[in-house]
Amino acid sequence: MSVSRRTLLTAGATAAAFAAAGTSTPATAQTGGIDVHAHCIPNALIPVLKAHGAAHDIEVVESAGETRIRLGSLTTGPLDPRLSDLPARIATMNRTGIERQLVSPFIGLTAYHLPDAAARWYSRAHNETMAQTTRSAPHRFTPMATVPLQSAGAADELVYAVEQLGMAGVEVSTDAGPRDLDDVSVEPFWEAAENLQALILIHPSASARVQLPYRLGNFVGNPSDTTLAIARLMFGGVLDRHPHLRICLVHGGGFLPYQAGRLEHGFRVYGGEHIKTSPLELLRRLSYDTVLHSPGRVRTLIDLVGIDRVLLGTDYPFDMGDPDPQGTLAAIPGLRERDRLQIARKNAERLIRPRAASSPAPA
Ligand SMILES: [Zn+2]
């Protein structure tokens, strides 16, 4: 199941260069931001998939200078080279006032549509190579896991990732492949995540959506998916059953904050078989990133959910991300310096398990 150490060491030269770039003390240390929404494809993952992926119906497809990965019946688009360019990542972090990134998988690289055994193998390979990558500069990066959410092995993989690899938590898609997040089969995962106090980044994936024109799958489909996913967790009773889950929604929670009144009204008029706590109360238990491309709307979010529930994010390295996250914070109307620091780093420090944030994982 484990990725061979020899394969991991193949990426040693890159890791060494990465470590050299990452060990210089950034000007932002102590005051810089913690970016909770960034993506990374570990350099060592591609060699592992090339060497061992075929046995699990996984293929690295290289053509015309582009790399795609086929996971069962699904093939990603061309992988963005910025996802694996570690020196460029650190340079960008230094330039934009980011002291630490929580690095999550590229959401297109989940194993939710693979058969059970292959999905478990892929998730383990991804998590081990991600941990290896971030171990090169543990003061700049905190790794986030992926798990085979459609599999009974999801909870076990999360325990392994957090306890053995020192990961802070896990990124999950807005669906569990063929199942939804409130499906009873996902319940052991939520229970494990709550017990571990793991951070759960819920992130939309346009890959399974009906194709929409004009990039609307990204502009509208993604926040729509997030809104529907969290509403299912509310009305399906998951958030009531697990009140201590540490969930962060990307893109400012999609349309949820703007439509919170509608959900609340629906709850009051119709009630629900599973939901016990009001949506307005539940949404104040969640956290949200700042990737809204509107300082005014971040202000709206703060006013709704509270200053302690908003976290700095960038969606690095994508074009729909925030290229100037500290500038966004500075432009939020009525934000005091104390509030800015809370969003920039203190809220994230509270949510990241101390062991994962402060010490490297065992080799
Ligand atoms: Zn993202």
UniProtKB/TrEMBL annotation:
Residues 1-29 form the signal peptide. Pfam families: Amidohydro_2. InterPro entries: ACMSD (IPR032465), Amidohydro-rel (IPR006680), Metal_Hydrolase (IPR032466), TAT_signal (IPR006311). Residues 34-352 form the Amidohydrolase-related domain. Keywords: Lyase, Signal. PROSITE patterns: TAT (PS51318). SUPFAM superfamilies: Metallo-dependent hydrolases (SSF51556). PANTHER family: 2-AMINO-3-CARBOXYLMUCONATE-6-SEMIALDEHYDE DECARBOXYLASE, ISO-OROTATE DECARBOXYLASE (EUROFUNG). This is Amidohydrolase family protein. It comes from Nonomuraea typhae.
